[in-house]
């Protein structure tokens, strides 16, 4: 009886090890999209998900339909890092790119004109296009998915079509628009910050309070822009240095607040 049991156990272990071996082989050879399983399919079933395109003209049309900026990915069939990039873009963690951007792949050998126009050197290369399909930001090489997503996040506000229309809109701003414009002062592009500041400067009554808040809680770009606007208004900003947080004291903020209040009273008389 004990011999029978030993044989059964031995066969069971053999089958178990064989099953584990097959599972390991499957995992090793399966592409990332296969391993994503239902999670990957669920992402692609999302109506906000626009898959990687391979036609530049189609990307422009999709950008107009979806009101999204364009990310151009330039590569070549002989490019090793480009192949790794393609694999990484199949991962579920890359889905945010396809929900915010219209991503299009351009082969530099098939589209040499675009490669020359965008001054492509090393591949893969990335070009972020603005509302008029102008190049707003460039990046060369692939340092991993996280770095790519971080770079895209840093540049999103600068090319977001809604933000761009808000900058070019000549309609009077309201409180909601002021909030959006002040948030956009984080933009790293000087030209955009100049447009934002110009719009805000024309609306002192709505902007004054939020600008004071920016001096205490905003980032460096926002603080610099806020001080430039206050300087245009001839506000008492002497002694405040945006690079030195200790100079933004409650006394100096109170002085600016009192000045803004007196200015408002003068205008209302």
Could you characterize the architecture of this molecule?
It is a single chain. This protein folds into 3 domains: 1-30; 45-159, 3-Layer(aba) Sandwich (Glutaredoxin), CATH 3.40.30.10; 169-268, no CATH class. It is 61% helix and 9% strand. It has helices at 2-29, 32-45, 56-66, 80-89, 95-100, 112-117, 145-159, 161-168, 175-183, 190-201, 204-217, 220-232, 250-268, and strands spanning 70-75, 102-107, 125-129, 135-140. The chain has a 4-stranded mixed β-sheet, with helices on both faces. A hairpin with a 5-residue loop joins strand 3 and strand 4. Helix 10 (190-201) crosses helix 12 (220-232), helix 11 runs antiparallel to helix 12 (220-232) and helix 11 runs antiparallel to helix 13 (250-268). The longest helix is centred in the first third of the chain and has 28 residues, at 2-29.
Structure summary:
With 269 residues, this protein is α+β, with helices and mostly antiparallel strands.
Mean model confidence by pLDDT: 81
Beta strand % = 5-15%
- Main sheet summary: 4 strands, mixed
* Overall shape: elongated
Task: Label this structure with key terms.
269 residues, alpha+beta, Glutaredoxin, 4-stranded mixed β-sheet, 13 helices, 61% helix, 9% strand
């Amino acid at each position: 009886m004990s011999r029978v049991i030993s044989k059964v156990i031995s066969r069971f272990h053999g089958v178990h090890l064989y099953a584990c071996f097959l599972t390991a082989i499957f995992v090793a050879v399966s592409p990332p999209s296969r391993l994503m399983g239902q999670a990957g399919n669920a992402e692609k079933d999302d109506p906000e998900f626009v898959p990687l395109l391979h036609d530049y003209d189609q990307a422009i049309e999709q950008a107009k339909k979806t009101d999204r900026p364009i990310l151009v990915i330039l590569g070549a069939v002989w490019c090793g890092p480009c192949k790794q990039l393609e694999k990484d873009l199949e991962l579920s963690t890359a889905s945010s790119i396809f929900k915010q951007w219209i991503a299009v792949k351009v082969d530099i050998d098939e589209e040499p004109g675009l490669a020359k126009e965008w001054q492509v050197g090393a591949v893969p290369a990335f070009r972020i296009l603005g509302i008029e399909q102008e190049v707003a930001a460039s990046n060369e090489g692939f340092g991993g998915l996280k770095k790519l997503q971080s770079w895209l996040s840093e540049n999103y506000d600068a090319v977001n079509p809604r933000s761009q229309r808000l900058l070019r809109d000549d309609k009077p701003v309201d409180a909601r628009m002021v909030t959006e414009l002040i948030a956009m002062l984080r933009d790293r592009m000087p030209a955009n910050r100049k447009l934002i500041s110009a719009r805000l400067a024309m609306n002192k009554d709505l902007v004054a309070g939020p600008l004071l808040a920016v001096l205490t809680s905003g980032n460096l770009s926002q603080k610099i822009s806020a001080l430039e606007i206050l300087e245009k208004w001839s506000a008492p900003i002497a002694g405040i240095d945006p690079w030195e947080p200790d100079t933004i004291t409650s006394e100096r903020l109170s002085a600016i607040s009192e000045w803004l209040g007196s200015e408002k009273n003068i205008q209302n008389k």
